[in-house]
Amino acid sequence: MVVGHRGAAAYAPENTLASVDAAHRLGITWVENDVQRTKDGELVVLHDTSLARTTNVKKVFPDRSPWNVGDFTLREIEKLDAGSWYNAKFKGERVPTLEDYLDEVEHNGQRLLMELKNPELYPGIERQALRELHHDGWLNGAHVKSRLIVQSFNADAIKKVHRLEPAVKTGFLGNPSLTDLPKYAAYCDQINPPHTAVTRAYVDAVHALRGPHHRRLELYTWTVDDAKAAVGSADLGVDGVISNKPDVVREALAAGATDRRARRGAGPAGPPGPLPAALSVAGPTLGHVTNREHGPGPAAAPDAARRRAVRRAATGPGRASGP
Question: Which label site among 81, 168, 194, 318 has the fewest CB atoms less than 10 Å from its CB?
Fold first, then answer.
C-alpha cells in the first residue's frame, strides 16, 4: 500500500482539498490526514496544533498568539488562506472541515487513513469523529471493510475507537517494544512506526501477531520520500509506505519488484510489473506530472469549492456537535 501523506504534500498544500485532488490525479487511492477540533466544536483537518505554519493567521489575527486550532472558531478559521504559504497558485485554499474532506475523498473514490491528532487536547474527539464518519456514510460495510483506517499516536484514543466501533480498522503510530506488541494487538490492526525505526526483526515480530479482527498485524511506515528508502522499506517486508511523494515511491517499488524478479532469474528487466500485493496502488496512473516542482496543481479545487458551497447552503456552516 502506498499512502499519500496529508494528501500529496509535496505537490500541494498539506491537508487541503487541493492536496487530496493532487493525490487523486497521480492515481493515489489512499490518503492520510490529521483531525483536530475548533473552539466551537467543529472537526477540521490540520496537522499542527497551531495554525501559524500553514495559514496566514498571523496576518489576519496578529494578537492571538500562539494561534492554536482550539482557540479559534470555525468561522474564524474559514477566513484564513491555507494555500499561499505553499505557492501563490493555491491562494484561497481553505482549512477543510472533516465533513468537506470526507466528501472530497468520497467524490474521488479514494480511501482514508485518518489520524486523530493530539486527542488529549480534545476530550471526546474519538466519539465525535466516529459520529461524523457515520453521518457521512463512512461506517457502512464497504467503507469499514476496505476504505477506512483510524490511527493515532495516543494509544488510549485508539482503544476508545476500537471500543466504540469494533469493526473499524485501527493503527498505532509509533514503535512499541517487542515485549509490548501483544498488548497493542488487542485493539490495533496496525503498528505504524517511522521508517528509521523499522528492521526486519521488528516487521517479523509485528507480523507474528494477530489483531482484534483475527488477521495478521500490519505495519505501515512513514514518511518515505525517496526511492532508495522506499525500496529498502519494502525489502524489510512492510505492508504500507506513507509518503509526501507517493508517485515517486510507487515508481521505485515497481522498478524494485522488476529488478528482484530479474535477479531471481526470471529474465531480463523489462517494463515495471505489478507491485507486491501488500504494496499495490489502485486507481488510474498519470503518465507524468506536468509541473514536477509544484505537482499537478489545483485544477480540481473549483469543483470541490462548488460542492462545499452547495452543501453549506443546504445544511449551514457546520455541525458543532461537540464531544
Answer: 194
